[in-house]
Amino acid sequence: MLQVENLHAGYGTSEVLVGTTLHVKQGTVVALIGANGAGKTTTMRAISGMIKPTGGQVLLGGKPVQGLSASRIAKLGLAHSPEGRKVFGPLSVEDNLLLGAYNHLPMFFGFRGKAATDLAKIYELFPRLKERRKQAAGTLSGGEQQMLAIGRALMANPKVILLDEPSMGLAPVIVQEVFSIIRRLKEAGITLLLVEQFAKSALEVADYAYVMERGRIAVEGTPAELNQNERVIAAYLG
């Protein structure tokens, strides 16, 4: 579903990704782990079009999308829930969710009616968001904002979701809740590329995983394989 081949990208004259290659099969959860500064978030930004790759290829459903605008890639079926959540604080919870639906619903007549079905699904998954649907997103707790960011991505009915550091800044009990949600998305057949600082938690939900070091993939394999890899254990699981 998502193929990244020999990807190069960076910021200005600084190259961060130096030949990243990874694959995400339909209906699977793939984890991308690594130390801070390894290039994980840059990978996500290059895939979603937030920055332009300088080399390599990104295929979404078999079609090349590298170099396209972020809005165009989103319309083709990729949703990006960014690091730090990035909700629109002054807007209500429901308005934040509706913004996620604009790429695939009619812009004028019938938008609200057709969005209602998608909203109902999100509120079933996140009852807390339904309780707070008229509340300003900026007044939510960190965990609630993360639920909102994931819900907004789901409102796009995407082929693939990029989920970047969903546990960042959250209390341990809320982190457990977030990973419970990721498991439910996995059970529903949602295709996910997950960047996560807690390697153990990421490997518990993933079907396959990549370890990134210095802008390229250093190790890859199933969670069972990585849990037995001495290099991975020493660096990330010890």
List keywords for this structure.
single chain, 10 helices, 238 residues, globular, alpha/beta, 4-stranded antiparallel beta sheet, 6-stranded mixed beta sheet, Rossmann fold
Number of helices: 10
What is the global morphology? Answer: globular
CATH superfamily of the domain at 2-85 and 157-237: P-loop containing nucleotide triphosphate hydrolases
The side-by-side strand order for the widest beta sheet comes to: 6-7-8-3-9-10
Total strand count, please?
A: 10
Structural class determined from secondary elements: alpha/beta
CATH class of the domain at 2-85 and 157-237: Alpha Beta
CATH architecture of the domain at 2-85 and 157-237: 3-Layer(aba) Sandwich
User: Which percent bin holds the helix content?
Assistant: 25-40%
CATH fold-level name of the domain at 2-85 and 157-237? Rossmann fold
How far the N terminus sits from the C terminus, by CA atoms, comes to 33 Å
- In sequence order, what are the helices and strands, one letter per element? EEEHEEHEHHHHEHEHEEHH
Mean pLDDT: 89
Largest sheet: 6 strands, mixed
Catalogue the unreliable spans: none
Radius of gyration: 17 Å
Percent of residues in beta strands:
25-35%
